[in-house]
Amino acid sequence: MNKKKVFNLAKGFRGRAKNCIRIARERVEKALQYSYRDRRNKKRDMRSLWIQRINAGTRLHSVNYGNFMHGLMKENIQLNWKVLSELSMHEPLCFKALVDISRNAFPGKKNVVHPPKKVSIPVSVWYVGRFVSLVSLFELDV
Amino acid sequence: MASQAASSFNGNVKKALAGLRRINLEGLRWRVFDAKGQVLGRLASQISTVIQGKDKPTYTPNRDDGDMCVVINAKDICVTGRKLTDKVYTGHLKERTLKDQMAKDPTEVIRKAVLRMLPRNKLRAERDRKLRIFAGGEHPFGDRPVEPYEMPPRQVREMRPRARRALIRAQKKAEQQQQGGNDAKKGKKREQTAEVAA
């Protein structure tokens, strides 16, 4: 690549790596290698994040992630992980319905997860963006 | 405001309130953990989950969204086995056993336990600031909406046969000593009460 292209890609780099061609060329090469690798890693990281979110959401309803997924698979619900995590964040009632479906798929399964006790203190309305605001709006049993 | 409200709290109120302004408290809950009779590591693991915000479905790894955790009765924390004498906290060429540390500062035990369970990243210091530990049963945050945290029930495994026999022996010994003491000192009184009853 010619120098102009290199310097365009080296914007925001630290120290001499954004100004001096010899150093910038090395750093830009490395940056491109990282971006190639991370385009593949991003898919893994996002899936891991979705799983953590789904886990947190289901544990509020006293089901853990494994049992929840098992129930969904049995009921042949083919929602993908991204959608499930979005539901758990923004649509608590819908997610609760899904958890109930999954729980009823295996009626005899013992309850392993203990959800946090319901709060008797009234939950004040916080600004949107924080999880608790949605819960208070719908008065969920959480 | 908080210091006046918690007049029963005798302790370092300034230290307890330190650094609260740095935390963006909007939308966070205040959870109270009672450490009385809890096993150290198991409690610390639950606290670390709550402090990271991993029990909320809106968990985001680059943003710290954990709840404020208040721990009370830190001096009543339990450990299994011989950890009271054998667990050692090491510094630079210095060592301190759990027993000494509890005598010196019981809050440090829980703080270290939780801190070492948090992921080592840039959010670790912020999360440490969200953790407030008190040795006694009082905390100065009474005016805020605090929620008690219910620990999940613990499956205690059966005692090993040797330990169980040792426990039974110790119990029998204690009973015998008590009975022996009663007979020697209060023998007369016992006879009198028996007479009165009869």
From TrEMBL, chain A:
Keyword match Cell membrane: no
GO cellular component, one term: ribosome
Record-linked SUPFAM superfamilies: Ribosomal protein L20
Signal peptide: none
Database matches in InterPro entries: Ribosomal_bL20, RIBOSOMAL_L20_CS, Ribosomal_protein_bL20_C
Location in or out of the cell: Plastid
Molecular function GO labels: rRNA binding; structural constituent of ribosome
Primary localisation category: plastid
Keyword tags: Ribonucleoprotein, Ribosomal protein, RNA-binding, rRNA-binding
One GO term of the biological process aspect: translation
Keyword Ribonucleoprotein in annotation: yes
Family membership noted in the UniProt record: Belongs to the bacterial ribosomal protein bL20 family.
Name of this protein: Large ribosomal subunit protein bL20c
Organism: Punica granatum (Pomegranate)
Automatic annotation (TrEMBL), chain B:
GO CC field: mitochondrial large ribosomal subunit
Keywords: Ribonucleoprotein, Ribosomal protein
Region annotation (Disordered) ranges: 139-198
GO annotation, biological process: negative regulation of translation; translation
Pfam families assigned to the protein according to its UniProt record, in alphabetical order: Ribosomal_L13 (PF00572)
Gene3D superfamilies the UniProt entry points to: Ribosomal protein L13 (3.90.1180.10)
Stretches with biased composition (Basic residues): 162-171
Similarity field: Belongs to the universal ribosomal protein uL13 family.
Protein name as annotated: 50S ribosomal protein L13
The organism of origin for this protein: Punica granatum (Pomegranate)
Organismal lineage: Eukaryota, Viridiplantae, Streptophyta, Embryophyta, Tracheophyta
